[in-house]
Amino acid sequence: MAHSTRETERKYAPPAEGVTWLPELAGVGPVAELVDQGVQDLDAVYYDTEDLRLSRSRASLRRRTGGTDAGWHLKLPLPGDSREEIQAPLSSEEVPEELRDLAFSRTRGAPLRPVIRIRSTRSLHHLLDAEGAVLAELSVDEVSAEALLDGGGRATWREMEVELAEDGDPALLDTVEEALREHGVERAESPSKVGRGLRETTSLLDGTRNPRADVAPESAGDHVLAYVDRLAAALTDLDPAVRRELPDSVHRMRTTAGRLRGCLRSYRSVLDREATDALRQDLKWLANELGVERDHEVLRERLTTGVSELPGELVLGPVGARLQTWDAEQRTEARRRTLDTLASPRYLKLLENLRALTDAPPLRAKAAGDPGKVLRKALLKEYDRLAARMEPALDMTPGPQRDAAIHDARKAAKRLRYAAEAARPGLGKPAARLGGRAKTVQQVSGAQHDSVVTCDLLRDLAVSAHSAGEPGFTWGLLYGQERASARSRERRLPEAWARVRGAARPEKLRG
């Protein structure tokens, strides 16, 4: 079974000739002592696809022997100097299935094979505080790399690495780096051994095409593609989190798919719909499939919270037991559906098409246009679509038809919000203001919809309880609370909608 740790480190190049390679760091910040931990011999074989898809996405997979953490290591990028390291025990030279699955969104199913062998002789030191606790590890490595791909070569180098202890203060890295620079030690150009090794022993990471080289800076296309690139990377990063059931990961992946789909729809004047419509459909499918598990999460939380907040004398019958039975049955099916989705050919096609979109964007003529005109026009179109749904919904009398109309308006509010997110770098505060107000409409109408859906479930649970001869009082009480909550949200909608109307006037979007 794999387990995960957070790795925060920085790598440094050798100092200028004649400068001490290992400076004295005692007394630097909280560091009281530098303690020699001896020498380790490390031998790592890195696995990747033939075209280095892991390395190109700043991830790595290795099988390493030697040291204190021998095993399989999948490293995934995190912000700043950190990476998540997912470790599995040493096994045969076959990549563990769990790590293969966690790398899937990056490899897109391509076979993994050994691409480079990196051996290091490591002189290890601990940086200790005044109480003797380990603050960080400092290592000096003599490195040799041997490419395992056809036509590859060899390389050697020296480097220093400073890695924070678990739960260490990131500010320590800045303090130590300042002291190292005073001794002539500068940051290494490459943040990883495998990245440097592949660059120095192969030509496969050289000359990577910049998909935005022909896009004018600060043009409409530049802003839209920046948004698409960010979301495509987020979708890739969230895949392993969803597979491991990390908190909120399903919700975030579903939302990312929705943002991407909305962007491709809103900016069809920038990206050719003949190339993006199929991807939009696949993103809609993905969001719907993930929605089964996400909707269950929302309902479980609402019901559990609702029951826990009731006084004990109002909870009549085996309410908790019935909730647990419902949760167990639905959660198992929802999780199976999510994992089946991520293992499906359609999901693989989606990943391939998304990669093709970012590698070779299908730009239209307006991509080179003034963002003030192109992005503003797209926002006003999305506003008009929202208005065409919201105005009739607010004129309806309360009831199922109005509930459905508000839900449709909520979807349009999301699209306006996401379009404004993409436009914000080009339009500035006016787009941010409109997006923020659209978000409020989305949240209010979303809370109303959640209460409506919860009411439907509560009625089903009440019917099941009645059929089993159990009291229905508690289910009815919860139903009443949710219905009142839905009507409360409906009363807030006109004011929230009026604020969107004010922010969407053309003169407002010009700042």
Characterize the structure shown:
By secondary structure, the chain is an alpha+beta fold. It folds into 3 domains: 199 residues, Beta Barrel (Hypothetical Protein Pfu-838710-001), CATH 2.40.320; 151 residues, Four Helix Bundle (Hemerythrin (Met), subunit A) (Up-down Bundle), CATH 1.20.120; 142 residues. It has 15 helices and 8 strands. An 8-stranded antiparallel β-barrel has the order 1-5-4-3-2-6-7-8. A hairpin with a 4-residue loop joins β4 and β5. α6 packs across α12, α7 packs across α12 and α11 runs antiparallel to α12.
Question: What does this entry show, briefly?
Answer:
The protein contains 15 helices and eight strands. By secondary structure, the chain is of the alpha+beta class.
Order of helices and strands: EEHEEEHHEEEHHHHHHHHHHHH
CATH homologous superfamily classification of the largest domain? Hypothetical Protein Pfu-838710-001
Radius of gyration: 28 Å
Largest sheet: 8 strands, antiparallel, barrel
Give the name of the CATH architecture of the largest domain: Beta Barrel
Indicate the percent of residues in helices.
40-55%
Annotated CATH topology of the largest domain: Hypothetical Protein Pfu-838710-001
What's the CATH class of the largest domain, please?
Mainly Beta
Share of residues in strands: 15-25%
How many domain regions? 3
Give the tally of β-strands.
Answer: 8
> Mean pLDDT across all residues, rounded?
93
- Give the helix tally: 15
Order of strands, main sheet, comes to 1-5-4-3-2-6-7-8
Flag low-confidence runs.
Answer: none
User: What would the principal axes of the Cα set say about the shape?
Assistant: globular
Distance between the termini: 55 Å
Structural class: alpha+beta
